[in-house]
């Protein structure tokens, strides 16, 4: 059996890494195809080093572009590789443009598609990610979903339950496997050299950072927050628009805000573990925060990870200045509320998602279910 992994961005490298390790461990043949959507050292290569992954066998080198052009170039490159490599299954992860491109090309070549983190829905089609995951699920044969709620989304869409595997999220596998390594190797906390409690922030979602008013409201909240140091590893998309909208220097000059370049995964795990609160619009960080017992405020009005909210570990604050500042103040003032959020149960499994996914793929292969027939 041969597996083709498609990755393109920071979170895909992180969440695919436990699966790549598992496939490697079992001696299964595989190829690693990087679309090149993320290409800065600190958005891509850093993670290959941190996670001890082999260099990709192919890098399509798509770079940054409009969605249409980026997806088209990825599809052309992926098609060429799949035609020559002839894998039995293509694995895509999450909701980026690589997921759409990879799933669509594989399905048309009659190659089985396994979607890791399938079935998530925000029910907000203005998000490029929602289009990507919905389109990918049309092309998917094996659906690896993190939770029962996610499986239900797919049942409502008429997916055969025999093809749905509830495995937990590989983000937990990655977190558990790397936290010990990180605690030995990372010196991020001494490098940061900040005294007092830390609030860590990430912000990159197109609907927040490309929209001047939403970004302005979030920045206002950050400037108003007191009693915490804000550590902010800034995504390149956000650097670009903060500068474009003339908001970068305001943040840089605020004494309680520490803007840094994106950091490696091991450093980020340690930063999160040492944070009193996370504020984010990231998908993966909503999951990691509840895994690491850090209360999370999410800068969105909806989430495809509602389990985190239902469990009590995550609050949706949108881009509303008052909601952001009042929730931070409440968490700082009321230890009972803080502790309750911290104690929220992790809905994303026990760190064995990658084993379960590879088991399911091997079973499907042995039963001839990866052969796509009319
Ligand atoms: C992409 C994904 C998003 C995911 C995020 C993870 C899509 C549609 N979006 O968003 O779902 O949450 O990755 O971080 O697939 N840039 C650089 N260097 C890089 C990469 C990007 O400078 O290495 C800059 C470019 O100016 C680029 C901008 O960031 O135009 C946005 O990058 P892009 O890959 O289009 O989208 P992300 O916001 O990273
Ligand atoms: N992350 C990192 N360094 C950073 C910021 C984030 O290693 O400076 C990791 C984080 O641990 C998580 C992943 O990147 O696993 C989330 O990626 P991102 O927020 O870019 O994408 P999303 O999950 O929203 O698709």
Question: What can you see in these coordinates?
Answer:
Strand 2, helix 2 and strand 3 (58-59) form a beta-alpha-beta unit. The protein has two domains: 2-169 and 350-366, 3-Layer(aba) Sandwich (Rossmann fold); 177-342, 3-Layer(aba) Sandwich (Rossmann fold). Helix 1 (10-25) crosses helix 18 and helix 7 (170-185) crosses helix 13 (265-273). It has helices at residues 10-25, 45-50, 67-85, 97-108, 128-139, 148-156, 170-185, 188-192, 206-209, 212-224, 236-244, 248-253, 265-273, 283-291, 306-310, 321-333, 335-342, 353-366, and strands at residues 2-7, 29-34, 58-59, 89-93, 112-116, 142-145, 164-166, 198-202, 229-233, 257-260, 277-280, 296-298, 314-316. The radius of gyration is 20 Å and the shape is globular. The mean pLDDT is 98. The protein has 374 residues and is of the alpha/beta class. It is 49% helix and 15% strand. 49% of the residues are buried. The strands form two sheets. The protein has a seven-stranded parallel sheet with strand order 3-2-1-4-5-6-7, with helices on both faces. It contains 18 helices and 13 strands. The two termini are 21 Å apart. The site of uridine-diphosphate-N-acetylglucosamine has 18 residues, from helix 1, helix 5 and helix 11. Uridine-5'-diphosphate binds at residues 10-11, 14, 202, 204, 233, 262-265, 268, 282-285, 288.
């Amino acid at each position: 059996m041969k597996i083709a992994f498609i990755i393109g961005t920071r979170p895909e490298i992180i969440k695919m890494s436990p699966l790549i390790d598992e496939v490697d461990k079992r001696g299964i043949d595989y190829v690693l195809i990087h679309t090149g959507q993320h290409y800065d050292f600190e958005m891509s290569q850093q993670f290959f080093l941190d996670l001890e992954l082999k260099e990709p066998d192919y890098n399509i080198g798509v770079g940054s572009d409009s969605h249409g052009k980026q997806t088209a170039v990825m599809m052309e490159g992926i098609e060429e590789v799949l035609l020559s490599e002839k894998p039995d299954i293509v694995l895509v992860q999450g909701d980026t443009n690589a997921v759409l491109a990879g799933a669509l090309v594989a399905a048309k070549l009659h190659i089985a598609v396994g979607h890791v983190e399938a079935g998530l829905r925000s029910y907000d089609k203005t998000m490029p990610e929602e289009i990507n995951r919905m389109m990918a699920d049309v092309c998917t044969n094996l659906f690896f979903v993190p939770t029962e709620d996610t499986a239900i989304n797919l049942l409502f869409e008429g997916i055969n339950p025999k093809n749905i595997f509830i495995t937990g999220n590989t983000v937990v596998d990655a977190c558990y496997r790397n936290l010990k390594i990180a605690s030995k190797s990372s010196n991020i906390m001494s490098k940061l050299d900040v005294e007092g409690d830390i609030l860590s922030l990430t912000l990159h979602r197109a609907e927040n950072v490309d929209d001047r008013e939403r970004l302005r409201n979030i920045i206002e909240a950050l400037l108003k927050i007191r009693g915490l140091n804000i550590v902010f590893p800034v995504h390149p998309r956000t650097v670009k628009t903060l500068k474009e909208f003339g908001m970068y220097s305001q943040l840089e000059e605020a004494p309680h805000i520490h803007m840094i370049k994106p950091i490696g995964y091991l450093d980020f795990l340690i930063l999160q573990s040492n944070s009193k609160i996370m504020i984010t619009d990231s998908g993966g960080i909503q999951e990691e925060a509840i895994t690491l017992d850090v209360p999370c405020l999410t800068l969105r009005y909806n989430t495809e990870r509602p389990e985190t909210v239902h469990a009590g570990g995550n609050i949706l604050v949108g881009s509303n200045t008052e909601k952001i500042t009042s929730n931070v103040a409440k968490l700082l003032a009321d230890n009972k509320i803080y502790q309750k959020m911290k104690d929220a149960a992790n809905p994303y499994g026990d760190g064995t998602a990658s084993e379960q996914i590879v088991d399911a793929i091997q079973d499907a292969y042995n039963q001839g279910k990866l052969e796509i027939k009319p």
